[in-house]
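User: Structure with NAP, tokens only please.
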Amino acid sequence: MTHRILILGGTTEARQLAGKLAARADVSITLSLAGRTESPVAQGVPVRSGGFGGARGLAAYLREAGTDLLVDATHPYAARISANAAEAARQAGVPIMALRRPGWERVAGDRWTQVDTVAGAVTALGLTPRRVFLALGRQEVAAFEAASQHHYLIRSVDPVEPRLAVPDATYLLARGPFREADERALLESHRIDTVVSKNSGGEATYGKIAAARALGIEVVMIRRPALPDVASAETVEALAAMVDHLFEPAAERGV
Ligand code: NAP
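Assistant:
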């Protein structure tokens, strides 16, 4: 019997999970991407791309594809698709599991100012001009046009188009992971005094947080959005173990 699994992805962990689960002989994996990144990295499993049309669209997809399990392995700040996934799974009667990497914890030496939204981060920069590193998605950086007195260093995977209507911005194109030593060199060479970041968690983008700490630089940290309450695991291995358990024949579980 083949179990059909739909993984909502767009993260490194989703790709790793897909690769790990694909090694099982009894599953068929489809990885779903939003289709925002112009040249996404190769995923190694069958991929579908683009939105489903809300929770109802996703529920219809789950029924039509005969999906046996939905895995939400999207980024912790992708709150809409996570809410849609929980609702669609309920509507379609399909089990759902979420892969939720833990957020970073503040440690001694960190100078974090925590805010709830991107708009809150813009306000937290204040009126006095600063030299700000924006390590955010290209959709989010537009909000900083409201504070055009600052210098911005903006790093994104795809080009920020249109460019921000601010007089002083530098653009970098790069895809993680980013090492602490390289992040430190970047912050120093651009004389950055403030980093604006999401609390993404994981190793791949922690380098800038550690580098900011080492340099005594303030981090304006945007808190995580609320996510639906579904069965979840923090690591790829733990989520894969939950999948094993779900698809284990009842006899082997001693049921
Ligand atoms: P979002 O605001 O939660 O979702 C917006 C809409 O995009 C959803 O309603 C859905 O459209 C579509 N969508 C999102 N993820 C999808 C997926 N994996 N497969 C199919 N459709 C998807 O999401 P977002 O914050 O824009 O993030 C988009 C993608 O980028 C996600 O896959 C996420 O994992 C990845 N990502 C996000 C961040 C971040 O900081 N937000 C960072 C790194 C990677 P419909 O309603 O039409 O189905």
